[in-house]
Amino acid sequence: MSNPVICIGAALVDDLFHATDKMLMHTTNEVSSTRSAGGVSRNIAHQLSLLNVPVQLISVFGNDSDGDWLKQICREAGIQLDSSITADIPTGKYTAIINHDGSMFTALLTNAALYLITPTYLQKHEALLKEANYILVDANISVETINWLVQFTNQHAIRLVIEPVSVPPAKKIAAAHFDGLYLLTPNEDELPVLCSETAITTEDQIKELLGRGVQNIWLHKGKAGSALYKKTETLQLSAPEAEVVDCTGAGDGSVAGFLFSKYNAKDNLTSLRTAHTLSAEILQVNGAIATHLNEEKLLQLVSKYYSE
Q1: Burial class for 51, CB neighbours closer than 10 Å (0-12, 13-18, 19+)
Q2: Closest to 84 measured CA to CA, from 97, 94, 72
């Protein structure tokens, strides 16, 4: 295998319930349901593998039928699981209610068991980690493990990406040591909780995180696109128009698109365009993965969405 992208974090069973009309509180709502493989790090690994990027996933699977099913999905997608954990626990689940317009109404996470991915565990797999082109970690893992990864990747000149996932895990990792971190990828809800209470504006929050040693901050702004901040420059890019069918995995797809582009040595603007294109395609399908895309089709769509 060529130097892989290593994804560390959640692999889950996604149970999604799609409302057929506007959600109503305190009463019964009619829905349709789908079941798919999910988890932030697993989703990113899956999408990268479909784009011909070699991927290793370090996650936790239950020793049950759901875990066996998840591992089979991963292997069929070309994801290597050599360093993942199988434990005598229930496999983690992500349960989401999706509004009739494709936006999220609410979501629940159970039994992720990512506390098992400790610095001690990762030290046993240093030989693999040293081979990484990029390491992507989601904020579902512990602050202690994130701190170890920041130190390890700084020591071995490996680019580390942290995906905050959602507000609660983002708030948890606010105490992490970010000095030397290559990329942090919050959205507008997650950014404030990563910062101190004295950083009130977006400008203040970006400045604070750059001051803590983060090299690049990629702020996701939903329909407004995104902005990539570093000390020397800021890149802003609008999002392409997309008819939203299901928002699940759009953020994960965006990160996968960016990593795919950077893995292939593209510049930041090209990488943002690729990220937005992949996210837009995921918004237009049910589930978290754009299974209809390969490397060639994605690049064609980038040219279509962002024609000069």
Answers
A1: buried
A2: 72
The CATH code belonging to domain 5-11+40-90+115-305 is: 3.40.1190.20
Q: What is the mean pLDDT of each run of 10 residues along the chain (308 residues)?
A: 90 90 93 90 96 97 96 96 95 90 86 89 97 97 97 98 96 97 98 96 98 98 95 94 77 95 97 95 82 93 88
Where exactly are the structural domains of the chain? Answer: 5-11+40-90+115-305
Residue 210 DSSP symbol:
H
Tell me the two tokens of residue 4: 């892989």
Task: Report how far Cα 173 is from the mean position of its chain's Cα atoms.
Answer: 15
Alpha helices by DSSP H, listed for the chain, are 40-50, 65-76, 119-123, 126-129, 143-155, 167-172, 190-193, 202-211, 250-263, 268-283, 295-305
Q: DSSP label at 115?
A: G
Question: Considering only CA atoms, which of 276, 278, 301, 164 is closest in space to residue 226?
Answer: 276
